[in-house]
């Protein structure tokens, strides 16, 4: 009987060793593995920010003097030849007569849509606070002719490109301070045609 009892004890010790347990390691090894630790990474939901298209970068600066030529301005105004000179780090271009008298300027800027709104809002902000504002259909995404007894006349147009807005302002000075609507609209179409392709 003693040998049988010894054999049973030996068999039990073998089971403990194979399973990695010892009589002193109470409780013995669990029969099932521990549950997996949940991942700390949040799930990716449909329509998450990673699915959104990248914002349109700011357009390279467009020099004002590339939008209108002295010949185009002189022809529209019916004046003698004019000279063009860049101003304000090339954002503006000033056209002067032979005596150096300023007759017209054009300015172009690239703006964030989130800050100022769409083309319509930009044109009205540029024309403000003129006495009279008139919408010009078919020119850019939005355009207005503005006039003021003190400031004179001008035309502003805007075109959208993703989350950016390109704004152009054309204004008369000196002898051309009250340039007519039709003349400024002609110059506005010239300037809009010279803008870089908005799809690039």
Automatic annotation (TrEMBL):
Keywords: Signal. Residues 30-45 have a biased composition (Pro residues). This is DUF3558 domain-containing protein. Residues 1-26 form the signal peptide. Residues 30-49 are annotated as: Disordered.
């Amino acid at each position: 009987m003693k040998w049988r009892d010894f054999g049973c004890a030996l068999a039990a010790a073998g089971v403990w060793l194979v399973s990695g347990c010892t009589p002193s390691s109470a409780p013995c090894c669990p029969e099932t593995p521990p549950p997996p630790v949940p991942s700390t990474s949040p799930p990716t939901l449909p329509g998450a920010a990673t699915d959104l298209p990248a914002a349109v970068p700011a357009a390279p600066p467009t020099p004002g003097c590339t939008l209108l030529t002295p010949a185009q301005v002189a022809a529209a105004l019916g004046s003698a030849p004019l000279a063009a000179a860049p101003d304000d780090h090339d954002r503006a271009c000033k056209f002067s007569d032979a005596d150096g008298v300023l007759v017209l300027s054009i300015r172009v800027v690239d703006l964030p849509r989130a800050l100022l709104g769409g083309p319509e809002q930009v044109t009205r902000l540029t024309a403000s606070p003129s006495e009279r504002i008139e919408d010009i259909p078919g020119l850019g995404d939005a355009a207005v002719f503005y006039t003021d007894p003190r400031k004179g006349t001008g035309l502003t147009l805007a075109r959208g490109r993703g989350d950016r807005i390109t704004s152009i302002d054309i204004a008369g000075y000196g002898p051309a301070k009250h340039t007519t609507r039709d003349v400024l609209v002609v110059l506005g179409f010239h300037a809009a045609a010279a803008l870089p392709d908005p799809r690039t």
